[in-house]
Design a protein that fits this description.
Elements (H helix, E strand, L loop, with lengths): L23 E12 L2 H6 L8 H14 L1 H4 L8 E11 L2 E12 L4 H19 L7 E11 L6 E2 L12
């Protein structure tokens, strides 16, 4: 395993210098799962705050665009695409976020931020009905581009061991 890139030789946190790296096409996909009781899932269409799934989707897109404001050592990236899909499934809401850029560093954190904030938004929109909602399995599913190439999470690593 290589050393952690966000620490200098003295062990202090530092932003990685990507100036000498070539800009390449990069993409990433992440997911999160929001476990919600069946009774609360049934109430989603009648939420007085609006459509929780659409609000969560837009919040996730906004989060991807603001990742460098939230994660201290992330580089601001010129995102070329962000998509957040929010789907009601048995036991809750599945969120899949993807991000793409043409840059010198990857977009994994942007995809993961989008999934996490979308999940938090579902919680926020539904917390009046159930404070026991759980956010689970925020994880990188895949990334492509850059020196380290392509990564894909093993099958069976999704929420509840479900195939991805």
């Amino acid at each position: 395993m290589s050393s952690l890139s966000h620490f200098d030789d003295a062990g202090s946190a530092s932003m990685v210098d990507v100036g000498a790296k070539p800009a390449t096409q990069r993409s990433a996909k992440a997911r999160a799962f929001v476990r919600i009781a069946p009774a609360v899932l049934e109430e989603l269409p009648r939420n007085p705050k609006g459509n929780p799934l659409e609000i969560a989707r837009i919040a996730g897109i906004q989060a991807a665009k603001r990742t460098s404001d939230l994660i201290p050592l992330c580089h601001p990236l010129p995102l070329t695409h962000v998509d957040v899909a929010v789907e009601v499934q048995e036991g809750g809401v599945a969120i899949t976020a993807s991000a793409a850029t043409f840059a010198r560093t990857g977009v994994e954190m942007e995809a993961m931020s989008a999934a996490a904030v979308a999940a938090l938004t579902v919680y926020d929109m539904c917390k009046a009905l159930d404070k026991g909602i759980e956010i689970r399995d925020i994880q990188l599913l895949e990334k492509a581009g850059g020196k380290s190439g392509t990564y894909r999470r093993d099958r069976g690593s999704g929420p509840g061991g479900a195939d991805l």
